[in-house]
Amino acid sequence: MFIDQIKSVFNEFEHKAEFKSYKELASGHINDTYLIKALNKPHFVLQRINHGVFKDVPGLIKNKVLVSQHIRHKLKAASKKKQKRAVLTFLKTKSGTDYYKDNQGNYWNLMYYIDKSITHDIVTSKKIAYQGGKLLGKFLTLTSDFDANQLVEVIPKFHDMSFRFNQFESALQMASIERLENAKFYIDQAKLLKEEMCILQKLKESGQIKTRVTHNDTKISNVLFDKRNKGLCMIDTDTVMPGIIHYDFGDAIRTICNTAQEDEKDLNLVAFNVKYYKAYRKGFLKQMKSTITPLELKYLPLAAKTMIFIMALRFLTDYLNNDVYYKVKYSEHNLDRSKNQFKLLDSLNKHINNL
Ligand code: GN1
Ligand code: MG
Q1: Structural domain total, the chain
Q2: 121 falls within a domain
Q3: pTM to 2 decimals?
Q4: CA atoms of 90 and 183, how far apart (whole Å)
Q5: What are the phi and psi torsion angles at 174 (to 5°)?
Q6: What residue numbers bound the domain in which 144 lies?
C-alpha cells in the first residue's frame, strides 16, 4: 500500500517523530509532494523529485540545501524560532545524505513543515502582493553574495527564450493535425512576438544585465505567509540557479497580477491587476533598492511580459507534444493554461505604459 511506502521512506530520514498520516499537496506540476503529520509537532513535507524532468537530482538537492544554509547563516542574528520560519530546513537520512533513493530509483527529500503558514493561488489584497514582493527582494538580497559557481544548472537554459522557441518549433513539426488546428491562433501569436520576447536574453548574454542567484519559480503559491499575510519564506527552491532578476520578478507578476488561476478556462475572468503590480514592485524595491541597477529597473515591465509569454509558450509546446512534461487533468489542460497566459498578456499590454 502507498501509505506503507510513504511511511517507510519517511523513516529512512533522521528524526525522532512517529508517522501519523499523510496527505498529498497537489499544487505542483512536476514533483509529488506530501504533508506528513507526525504524532507530535513538528510535521514534515516529503517530496519525490521527478527524475524524468530533473536529470541531476543529487545536484538539485545539493543546490537547495546549500542555498538554505547560506540564508540561515545570514539570518543568524534572528532567534532560532524566526530562522526556522524564514528558510526551509532539510533533514538528512540515517546514512547522512540529503536525499533517499528507493529501490525503484526514486529520489526523496524531507523538510520541516513550517507551522501556521498559508499559501495563496490568487492574490486578494494589495498587502499580499506587497509582502510577496518584499519576500522575493529579501531572498535575492540574501543570496546575492552566494557563490553561484557552487550551483548545478538543474535544467540548462530553463528560462532561455531561444531554447524555448527551438522546443516550440520542434513541437510544431511533430504535432498532430488536430492539435495544430486547435492551437492555430496561439501558434501565430507566439511567432509574432518572438523578437520582442528575446530582448532580455540578449541583454543577459551581452552582460549588460548581470547574472545573479535566482529562484526561477516565483509563482505566488511558492510563497509562505503567516496567518496575518506577512511573508515568511520562499519555498520550492528546486530551480535555484544563476539567472537574472527579471526571471523572478516577471514570473511572480505572472501569478500575482492574474485575477484568476493559471488554468482558469473562462477567459473573461482573466485580467492583469495593475494595483497588485505596483504593490508587488514597491515591496520588491524596498528590499532591492541598494543593489538594483538602473537597467535592471528599466526592464521590469518587459520582465512581466516576457515571463507570462514564456509560460504561454511552454504550455503550448507541451500541448503540441501531447502533454509529456506537465501533469494534466484533461486533454486540453495545457492549451487552456496557454490561452489563459495569452489572455493575461493581452490585458497587460493595455497597461504597459503605466507600469
Ligand atoms: C512548474 O511544478 P511546479 O508547479 O513547481 C514549472 C515552472 C512553471 C510552473 C507553472 C521545473 O513548476 O517553471 O512556472 O510549473 N517547473 C519546472 O505553474 O518546469
Ligand atoms: Mg517549482
Answers
A1: 2
A2: no
A3: 0.96
A4: 42
A5: -95, -20
A6: 126-354
